[in-house]
Amino acid sequence: MPFWKSASRPWRAALGALLIAIGALSAASPAIAEGITPLRAAVESTPDGYRLDAQFDIHFSPGLEEAVNRGVALYFVVEFELSKPRWYWFDEKPVQLSQTYKITYTPLLRQYRLSAGSAYQNFTRFEDVVSALSRVRGWPVADAGALRRDVGYQAAIRMRLDTTQLPKPFQLNAVASSDWNLSSDWYRWTVNP
């Protein structure tokens, strides 16, 4: 005979209340999946050329956040393509760009740093770094005369964690663990200059 059938009524009532409370908590606070999701992107014409604005929804796994807090630098790559479909050959790709962002933590100063090339910005909270990483603003992608006005272009953007720039022990871990495979799908849209 199972223990819950042989248990006294108060014990069964307490067990039932505990199961209901656990179910309510799990329904009220669903787990946020780790990953990167592109939310929106647009290429706008300016007097000095075309600029890209994009927004991503980024959720780090606890393991990745802990790795940053322990001194591991994380490199994220934003890739952008602009292509013109051709019926007689492969698509022409007049624009193919990538930008690398680096997240580091300095325990002595208790500061996170987000850098892209020689430009950087410091933050005191990890959430602020992730928020800044999730926004691409005013990225110059083409000169003013680079795109033809009578043609529709297909644009695509994605963001991914570059595991090839991790220290070697972490690269091995990245192969075996889904925590380290942080990448978005390509977000595609049409650009009419």
Task: Give descriptors for this structure.
alpha+beta, 193 residues, 9 strands, three-stranded antiparallel β-sheet, six-stranded antiparallel β-sheet
Biggest sheet, in brief? 6 strands, antiparallel
Strand order of the largest sheet: 6-5-4-3-8-9
What is the count of distinct domains?
1
Distance between the termini: 75 Å
Q: Rg from C-alpha positions?
A: 24 Å
Which of globular, elongated, flat, extended, rod-shaped describes the shape? elongated
Spans where pLDDT lies below 50 across 5 or more residues: 13-31
Give the class from helix and strand content and strand pairing.
Answer: alpha+beta
Compute the number of helices.
Answer: 5
Mean pLDDT across the residues is 83
Tell me the layout of helices and strands.
Layout lengths: L2 H4 L2 H20 L6 E12 L2 E11 L2 H8 L4 E11 L7 E15 L4 E6 L2 E5 L2 H8 L1 E8 L10 E9 L6 H9 L10 E5 L2
Antiparallel strand pairs: 1-2, 2-7, 3-4, 3-8, 4-5, 5-6, 8-9
